[in-house]
Amino acid sequence: MREVVDVDPYSGAIETIEWDDAENRLVVKTTCDVQPVIDRNKELANSWDGWVDEAHTMRLAAQIPVTVAYKWLQDYGVMVGRREHWPAIRRLLNDPEWRYLRVGHFIL
Question: 8-20 as b/e, with b when 16 or more CB fall inside 10 Å?
Answer without folding.
Answer: eeebbbbbeeeee
